[in-house]
Amino acid sequence: MLGGFITTYLSWHWNFFINAPLGLAGLALVARFVPGDRDSEAKPFDWPGFFLTSLGLAVMLYGLERLAHPENGLLPTVGSIGIGIMIGWLAVRHLLQARHPLLDLSAFKVLTFAISTLAAGTVFRVAINATPFLLPLLFQVGFGLSPVDAGLLVLAYFLGNLGMKTVTTPTLRRFGFRTVMVVNGSIASLAIMACGAISPQTSQVALMLVAGLTRSMQFTALNTLAFADIGAPQRSSAATLSSMLQQISMLFGVAIAAAILNLSQIFRGEALPDLVDFRITFVAIGLLGLAAAMRFLVLPANAGAEVSGHSTNN
User: Per-residue pLDDT tens for 195-218?
Assistant: First the structure.
């Protein structure tokens, strides 16, 4: 909502400054509350791992960002993604062989971490992260609303995020991670597909709340399960790996949504996207999330039970 106000009455450029006070507040809170514990044994810094990891990630993210702008040419986009993947492969090989690697990849041997960050978790985050990108476009381009009015509707979406926080813990305790992530993930995916069916004549607030509620519960479950079985020596690397994959999934979500929207528009031979293009995109993104939700069935019934408090004997 604040972004819509700034875009309408100032300039969209000013939106980026919102991050400055939030970032400073975050730094102050970390300095105040997060303990500075670290290993007593000093280890040499892994410069090759740092160089390969950061370069591969930067090049791949640049290529993914270009997917949202097909007018800039396909070859540089594919080339950037390909080069990023190649450098990433070299980084992984180095991290597996180095004596003191920058990142400990052994966390991926833990099923709950692997599926909630690398496998189904990343795919589901792609679908979820595409939604906040598509909704403002739908409301402004498809419905003709102003940025302020679009921001008010998106606000309902994120109010659903806040409203679910108090319910998530008891729900996980009652049903467990596997059931919640399959059922709630399916509802969240269906809510994404339902966004393609709304029109300027229908009420969008209720659907925005449902989509926000289910999105919040799935994110909380994913982030909690990821570290449920991670040991203390793995936590630092696991946190970095999780953060990196979340950044990739965010950009992937925007890139895939923009690519589907553009392809649908090009296929129809139109200069601007129409409601039908948004409907196709929402359905495709929702199906992606639904497939990821079904993948959580591979989790055991007691996955993350020590964290959720769920008992399979109930």
Answer: 888 877 776 778 888 888 888 899
- For the purposes of burial, counting CB atoms within 10 Å of the CB of 130, is it exposed (0-12), middle (13-18) or buried (19 or more)? buried
Q: Are 231 and 117 in contact (CB under 8 A)?
A: no
- Phi/psi for 210 (5° steps) reads -65, -45
Which among 239, 244, 240, 283 is positioned nearest to 260, based on CA atoms? 283
| Entry pTM | 0.81
Closest of 86, 31, 37, 96 to residue 59, by C-alpha: 86
Task: In whole angstroms, give the CA distance from residue 96 to residue 46.
Answer: 12
Q: Which parts of the chain sit beneath pLDDT 70?
A: 38-41, 68-72, 160, 203, 312-314
> H helices within the chain, ranges in order?
2-9, 19-33, 47-67, 74-97, 111-113, 120-137, 147-195, 205-226, 235-268, 275-295, 305-308
Question: DSSP code of 117?
Answer: I
Structure tokens at 109: 């041997």
Alpha-carbon radius of gyration of the chain: 21
Residue 58's CB: how many other CB atoms inside 10 A? 13
d(CA 159, CA 212): 7
Asked whether the CA dihedral 18, 20, 25, 30 is positive or negative, the reply is: positive
C-alpha count within 13 angstroms, C-beta hemisphere, residue 105? 15
Q: Which of 214, 255, 234, 290 is nearest to 114 (CA)?
A: 234
Cα-based distances in Å from 87 to 19, 51, 181: 31, 10, 33
136 touches 263 (CB < 8 A): no
